[in-house]
Amino acid sequence: MKTVLLLNGPNLNMLGVREPAVYGCDTLAAIEAEVVAYAAERGVEVACYQSNHEGALIDKLHEAHTAFDGVIYNPGAHTHYSYALRDAIGSIDTPVVEVHLSDIEAREEFRRISVIAPVCIAQIKGKGKAGYKEAFDVLLEYDAKR
Ligand code: DQA
Questions:
Q1: Where would a tag sit more exposed on the chain, N or C end, judged by fewer CB atoms within 10 A?
Q2: How close is the Cα of 38 to the center of ligand 1, in Å?
Q3: d(CA 65, ligand 1 centre) in Å
Q4: To which H or E segment does residue 4 belong?
Q5: Which residues span the domain enclosing 113?
Q6: Does 124 contact ligand 1 (Cβ within 6 A)?
Q7: CATH code (residue 27)
Q8: Which segments of the chain does DSSP mark as H helices, in order?
């Protein structure tokens, strides 16, 4: 595994400001830097991308089909309703790990459903920013078995 895409969906650009009691105090830039460094220590390059726009995220996932060996993806609220993003993941061969900072099972009813999960190789939730590094480990392990 040489290159990984760290993808974040809507409102995750507001980390650090947005509901810190739920999502923690770190900014997205700080979390991205940690994942980039963690992966670099293991010889993998990570590219980071965040968008609040469904179409831009779909385009990036399509790009991942040829440009990346794995995707770490926090789809934000798209998790719960975006069949278009689910189909984008279903359209590519690149393995995708779904990440949530919070435990979506333990929050409002609407957050319990992930339409994204069935097309991902794993879902990691409720571990805060550590979940992104865990997702990287899952990708690394998956890649080693291929
Ligand atoms: C989230 C959980 C989603 O329900 C929410 O809409 C987000 C963030 C998380 O990281 O816990 O935007 O994906």
A1: C
A2: 23
A3: 24
A4: strand 3-8
A5: 3-145
A6: no
A7: 3.40.50.9100
A8: 20-23, 28-41, 54-67, 83-90, 130-145
